[in-house]
Amino acid sequence: MPSDKSTKQILPEQQKYNPQEPTRDTKSSHDNEVCPVCFGTGVEILPKGARPCGCRATDSKRKAFNAARIPRRYAGCSLDNFKSEPDSSQDIAFRYACRLVLDYPAVDRGLLFMGPVGVGKTHLAVAILKGLIDKGVGCLFYESGSLLKQIQDSYNPISNTSELRVLAPVYQAEVLVMDELGSTIPTDWVRDTIYQIINTRYNDKKLTVFTTNYMDEVPQVDDALETARQNRKLTNRIHELTTLEERIGTRLRSRLYEMCTKVKIEGEDYRKRLDRRRFDSSRI
Hints:
Blueprint: E1 43-46, E2 49-52, H1 54-67, H2 89-103, E3 110-114, H3 121-134, E4 139-143, H4 144-154, H5 163-172, E5 175-179, H6 188-203, E6 207-212, H7 223-230, H8 236-240, H9 244-248, H10 250-259, E7 260-264, H11 270-282
Parallel strand pairs: 3-6, 3-7, 4-5, 5-6
Antiparallel strand pairs: 1-2
Helix pairs in contact: 2-3, 5-6, 6-10
């Protein structure tokens, strides 16, 4: 994704989040520092009066960012640093993401980013959340497999949580990103649980953004792969060629047609390109 987009200039100014800022698991030494403007009172004194100090807004955004559960690996992702070739599928996906952030809350459908690994789906989904957090919107990020694991763990008698406690924030979030939809082996329990989660948000008209590696149609395969498929010799490659509907079920795929605009993204895995660049540089 080598070139920047001029369309990024239409975005409202957004506060940049530093991935090194404190998260739920870490605390910064700055947490105990007193604001030099308001001295911890939250009020900035002016020559002709007073106003709320800007440190309060910064603290509020930091708390909202931490509450969104965005993984630290993606904390630096934003619309400003997403790069793609002009008029490519990645460029089109970028424009969809920008439009959602700019138009919210006058938005009635989420986005379903579909494509292979490493094309920027999660980057865009996180960038949407960060743009909406800047607008004061309550957001939440969950990788679908991680969410299902937390629900399963809540069934353990010695667990300190419950299924309702795990799911309440997912149901209530104003905007939810569900990453890697369909990645978990599609047992009946998995399908029913994911359907319950998404159908609840559907009924409550809550905006949801999804990413998935699975498409609505199986790509063309060569004769050898097709023979293996027909013989049910499911190699990892064949396993990847199943459709999204096969992974999540017909009922849920039908819901997604109404809940989201499908955005198909194509391209090379950027991690492979990064690895090649590292290899090339090591030969210098």
